[in-house]
């Protein structure tokens, strides 16, 4: 056991635990996700003393590489993208435990070699058969890799004597049917309890804080319902384009890429009932209920919007349109923007619209949940312009400038009784000295610890596809509306809210 563990009182849940010695096997180490998120997160965990001494990072990819080549790639990734300061001594400790196995996914020999390497690591690093396999690969390759893990019995924890877990990146399938097939395959290769479906939004501090805000306070819960809430707006805006992921993105579009997972998870956490405790099972029970209660508008034409960016200006630079991005087929009708009005058919939310929107090449990167309250039923102030006063709003800013803002009316100093909207801000950066871990840091650590609290299960995934499938079907073959890069999406999105007398918040 790690000496740090011996010093800790295991009942003290404030201190992060350190996993048992183990290997993290990453498939697709040369991809963007591995270089920008996974490897840096491993480094950050090492830097925070949260990796066991017997930790091994094992890369697998189709490259004619040895351990040293992968170590160099990993070092560059950590230097460029880690959250915490790069320290040579921390790296040196990690570097000694970096291994690489070359091969392609359909090569039996390569997987036999991977198996052999894991067995050798029991001797050299004391990993005692513990391994987590991270599928950081295109979804089409999932079945091939899973079948290889099955063939070699690398997924069999009983036979290997330690834990064997698998991490599957979203999107899980591309519709309900394919996600069911994938779920079935994963759950037969691995024990279902060892399958970690990742949605990195759940690893974000601010997203977890939504639960603290709602359930640790008395102030908000009494007004968190249709008696007081007018509507909820959930926005995930990005200024980036498709960042070289043409093949993946053109097949997925905004609906499958983020609406099906990140945005619906944010909706679930905003709308769910209080779980009986903060454990995996209780949280999932509440999220299931709310996802099952999500309804689509009866008029999809009026209350869903798809957009595709065309060339425009962002941050003083001219950027090309989606159709001119490298690798995008001519005439593609894939959406880079999606907005929809959803309902939640429960007593708590009856009649409250949940407006979700997401887009690429919007003016800035911002994710927020805005709970918009009903207006005061009566205003006894003669000189107050109700339009200017607006609605009270509670805005949870997921990123950047993580925090919470409360917007409410206040008297303008002076002799007249004039009321205007003001903001009260809580900023993580100002309230806490600790900086927030990256989502992948938290989630990778949870995988190694075997804690599934922040991972959606297949019932949630299927419930989400049930929401998205009819939308995708409706959108199929239709041309998305155009919007200029650097603008807040297509006009149709504004018209959608205007139909109900509302406007989008400008984040
Ligand atoms: C990913 C999507 O899941 O989330 C990307 O596939 C998107 O298209 C990314 O850019 C955004 O993540 P974040 O954490 O930067 O908001």
What does this structure look like?
The chain is an alpha/beta fold. The chain has 2 domains: 3-169, Rossmann fold (3-Layer(aba) Sandwich); 202-498, Dihydrodipicolinate Reductase, domain 2. The chain contains 17 helices and 18 strands. The protein has helices spanning 3-6, 32-47, 67-81, 88-95, 108-125, 142-151, 157-160, 176-189, 205-215, 246-271, 280-292, 300-303, 386-389, 428-431, 439-449, 458-475, 491-498, and strands at 22-27, 55-61, 98-102, 131-135, 164-169, 195-198, 229-237, 294-295, 304-310, 312-314, 317-319, 337-344, 354-359, 366-373, 393-399, 403-411, 419-427, 481-484. Strands 7, 8, 9, 12, 13, 14, 15, 16, 17 and 18 form a 10-stranded mixed beta sheet that branches. It has a 6-stranded parallel beta sheet with strand order 3-2-1-4-5-6, with helices on both faces. Helix 8 (176-189) links the parallel strand 5 and strand 6 (195-198). The model is unreliable at 1-12 (pLDDT under 50). The structure holds 6-O-phosphono-beta-D-glucopyranose.
- Domain unit count: 2
Tally of separate helices: 17
CATH homologous superfamily name of the largest domain?
Dihydrodipicolinate Reductase, domain 2
State the low-pLDDT regions, or none: 1-12
Overall shape: it is: globular
Q: Within the CATH hierarchy, at the fold level, what is the topology of the largest domain?
A: Dihydrodipicolinate Reductase, domain 2
- The multimeric state of the shown protein is single chain
What's the story with the biggest beta sheet? 10 strands, mixed
* Number of strand segments: 18
């Amino acid at each position: 056991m790690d000496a740090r563990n011996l010093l800790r009182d295991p009942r003290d849940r404030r201190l992060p635990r350190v996993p048992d010695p183990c290997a993290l096997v990453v498939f697709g180490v040369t991809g963007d996700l591995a270089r920008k998120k996974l490897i840096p997160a491993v480094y950050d965990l090492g830097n925070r003393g949260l990796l066991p001494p017997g930790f091994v990072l094992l890369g697998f990819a189709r490259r004619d590489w040895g351990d040293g080549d992968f170590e160099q790639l990993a070092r560059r990734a950590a230097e460029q993208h880690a959250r915490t300061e790069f320290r040579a001594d921390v790296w040196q400790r990690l570097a000694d435990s970096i291994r690489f196995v070359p091969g392609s996914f359909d090569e039996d020999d390569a997987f036999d070699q991977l198996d052999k390497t894991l067995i050798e690591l029991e001797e050299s690093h004391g990993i005692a058969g513990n391994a987590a396999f991270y599928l950081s690969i295109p979804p089409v390759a999932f079945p091939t890799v899973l079948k290889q893990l099955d063939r070699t019995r690398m997924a069999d924890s009983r036979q290997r004597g330690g834990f064997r877990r698998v991490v599957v990146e979203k999107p899980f399938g591309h519709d309900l049917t394919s996600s069911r097939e994938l779920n079935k395959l994963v759950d037969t290769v691995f024990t279902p309890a060892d399958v970690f479906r990742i949605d990195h939004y759940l690893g974000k501090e601010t997203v977890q804080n939504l639960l603290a805000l709602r359930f640790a306070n008395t102030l908000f819960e009494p007004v968190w319902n249709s008696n007081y809430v007018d509507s909820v707006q959930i926005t995930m805006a990005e200024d980036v384009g498709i960042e070289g992921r043409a093949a993946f993105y053109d097949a997925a579009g905004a609906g499958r890429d983020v609406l099906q997972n990140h945005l619906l998870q944010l909706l679930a956490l905003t709308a769910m009932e209080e779980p009986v405790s903060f454990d995996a099972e209780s949280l999932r029970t509440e999220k299931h209920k709310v996802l099952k209660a999500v309804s689509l508008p009866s008029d999809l034409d009026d209350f869903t919007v798809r957009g595709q960016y065309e060339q425009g200006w962002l941050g003083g630079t001219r950027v090309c349109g989606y159709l001119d991005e490298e690798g995008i087929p001519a005439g593609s009708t894939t959406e880079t923007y999606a907005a929809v009005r959803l309902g939640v058919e429960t007593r708590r939310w009856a009649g409250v619209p949940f407006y979700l929107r997401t887009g690429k090449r919007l003016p800035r990167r911002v994710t927020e949940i805005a709970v918009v309250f009903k207006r005061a039923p009566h205003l006894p102030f003669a000189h107050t312009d109700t339009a200017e006063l607006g609605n009270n709003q509670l805005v949870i800013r997921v990123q950047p400038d993580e925090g919470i803002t409360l917007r409410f009316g206040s008297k303008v100093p002076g002799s007249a009784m004039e009321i205007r909207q003001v903001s009260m801000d809580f900023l993580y950066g100002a309230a806490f000295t600790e900086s927030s871990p990256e989502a992948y840091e938290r989630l990778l650590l949870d995988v190694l610890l075997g804690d599934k609290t922040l991972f959606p299960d297949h019932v949630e995934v299927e419930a989400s596809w049930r929401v998205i499938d009819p939308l995708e079907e409706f959108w199929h073959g239709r041309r998305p509306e155009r919007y200029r890069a650097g603008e807040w999406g297509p006009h149709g999105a504004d018209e959608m809210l205007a139909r109900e007398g509302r406007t989008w918040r400008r984040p």
